[in-house]
Amino acid sequence: MFTRIPALLLGFALVTLAHAADPFEAGKQYFIIEPQQPTSTGDKIEVLEVFSYGCPACNQFQATIKKLKAELPANTELTYLPASFNPSEDWPVFQRAFLAAQTLGVTDKTHDATYDAIWKDDGALRISDLKTHRLVSPLPTIEDVAKFYAGLGVNKDDFLGAANSFAVNMKMKRADAQIKTYGVDSTPTLIINGKYRFTGSSAGGLDNTVALAKFLIAKESAGK
Questions:
Q1: Closest CA to 27 of 19, 39, 18
Q2: Residue at 5 is within a domain
Q3: Strand 45-51 relative to strand 76-82: parallel, antiparallel, unpaired?
Q4: CA-CA distance, 175 to 187, in Å (whole number)?
Q5: Do 76 and 119 share a domain, yes or no?
Q6: CATH number for position 157
Q7: Which residues contact 131 (CB under 8 A, 6 or more apart)?
Q8: Which secondary structure element, helix H or strand E, spans residue 219, and what is its range?
Q9: Domain match, 40 and 65 both
Q10: Is residue 190 a contact partner of residue 213, using CB atoms and an 8 Å limit?
Q11: pTM higher than 0.85 for the full model?
Q12: pLDDT in tens, 75-127
């Protein structure tokens, strides 16, 4: 015997099935940022990594972020936002270094090299002894970063001029404020289009991180 299903119930069932098919759930694997924050990528969907060069987890995350970058669709752009909330491990210095390099347009030379200089055994900017895990003293200064970047072809005086400029000081303040607005309390954290926030842990591990990012990008693309 055929029974007509009320349209309201049918609609509810279809919505329920659609959500059941989603591999990730808001409030569990990712979190919605309210209100949605502005992006810096124009018409493209922004994929933003909140990071610090001084963060060991961020260093380990680089293989994942490179994999994600290689798989991003054409309507997206990967950007970076340096955090400073761990001064004891030199994060404010590294935040200043990234923003100065970004101002000069040389992050393609300095980004990967800075991680190596901090975390490799013979790195010029090490913040800890890799055997004892104790912090070195003194920690690297922005002048030390300038000397290291000079070896990469970045003019030392230009870099220090940018690093100590009013513009970079303001960018540091804006970065700190932006990170608080996003609700970020650990690094690395990914922000998708100023709307979604997640970490490798919330995603269920690094293996799920790329899949979750692509899932949220697809949601935003569908919304546009």
A1: 19
A2: no
A3: parallel
A4: 14
A5: no
A6: 3.40.30.10
A7: none
A8: helix 206-223
A9: yes
A10: yes
A11: yes
A12: 999 999 999 999 999 999 999 999 999 999 999 999 999 999 999 988 999 99
Work out how many domains the chain is built from and give that number. Answer: 2
Are 117 and 151 contacting, i.e. CB atoms less than 8 angstroms apart? Answer: no
**221 shares a domain with 165:** no
DSSP string, 134-191: PBPSSPPPHHHHHHHHHTTT--HHHHHHHHTSHHHHHHHHHHHHHHHHHT--SSSEEE
**Rounded distance between C-alpha atoms, residue 88 and residue 136, angstroms:** 11
**How far apart (Å, rounded) are the C-alpha atoms in residues 32 and 49?**
16
Q: Note whether residue 19 is domain-resident.
A: no
Dihedrals phi, psi of 32, to nearest 5 degrees: -85, 130
User: What tokens were used for 219?
Assistant: 């949601």
Give the whole-angstrom CA distance, residue 47 versus residue 80: 8
Q: Which residue has the tokens 């054409």?
A: 74
pLDDT tens profile 171-188:
999 999 999 999 999 999
Domain ranges, residue 139: 90-183
